[in-house]
Amino acid sequence: MSKNITPYKNSDLGKKEQVAKMFDTISGNYDNLNRVISFGIDIKWRKKVLAIVAKSNPETILDIATGTGDLAILMTQTNAKKIIGLDISAGMLEVGVKKIADKKLSNTIEMVLGDSENMPFEDNYFDAITVAFGVRNFETLEKGLKEILRVLKPNGVFVILETSVPDKTPYKQGYNFYSKNILPIIGKLFSKDDVAYGYLSESAAAFPYGEALNNILRKIGFIDVIALPQTFGVATIYSASKN
């Protein structure tokens, strides 16, 4: 199980409230900063998520921790009839709603303010569910995953894209140096929130990945669990389903 890493060390707020506050603060620069931090490779990873989801020909898709809606927008290429982007940060959703309107996708994508651990959806509702760089922000990982299992239809597809830590030399050493030393500096240059990208780096390092996360998914009740490491292991795509 992952350690409970929070953005603001001395805050009385719970993790959910801290995460919402942090993302509200950095929402204006988030998209551009993501491209800089990942050298643009995150776009390639998201397209791989799209390819996995598209195979199931979903009619309804939920994108959890949708942020400004990048993955939800990409999911329109599946020709799904309805896509919902859920996020706890009103600031991120505000940016996303404008992006979606500019692309004339408001009839397909609905942005919803809500908690991934207590979602306002019926059981067995979605054909596909995605989470990109969001599961490590869950206050209680297993509770969030149980909630995802609840709203996913039987035989539906669940895909996670999340950071992970390379196991092999020299990628492991290079990743550790970059995440601990370079990433927080870039974050401070671009962001009004000094702690935000330090938190993102720290939470990524502490989060279970690979077979550890596979085992948690199986414990919750997911089936057909597969982990697909990306770019020397700096990120991993997880695919799972439901009986």
Automatic annotation (TrEMBL):
Pathway: Quinol/quinone metabolism; menaquinone biosynthesis; menaquinol from 1,4-dihydroxy-2-naphthoate: step 2/2. One of its GO terms (biological process) is methylation. InterPro entries: SAM-dependent_MTases_sf, UbiE/COQ5_MeTrFase, UbiE/COQ5_MeTrFase_CS. S-adenosyl-L-methionine binds at residues 68, 87, 115-116. Pfam families: Ubie_methyltran. SUPFAM superfamilies: S-adenosyl-L-methionine-dependent methyltransferases. One of its GO terms (molecular function) is demethylmenaquinone methyltransferase activity. Coiled coil: none annotated. CDD domains: AdoMet_MTases. It comes from the Bacteria. Keywords: Menaquinone biosynthesis, Methyltransferase, S-adenosyl-L-methionine, Transferase. It catalyses: a 2-demethylmenaquinol + S-adenosyl-L-methionine = a menaquinol + S-adenosyl-L-homocysteine + H(+). Its EC number is 2.1.1.163. HAMAP family: MenG_UbiE_methyltr. Methyltransferase required for the conversion of demethylmenaquinol (DMKH2) to menaquinol (MKH2). NCBIfam families: MenG_MenH_UbiE, PRK00216.1-5. Belongs to the class I-like SAM-binding methyltransferase superfamily. MenG/UbiE family. This is Demethylmenaquinone methyltransferase. The gene is menG.
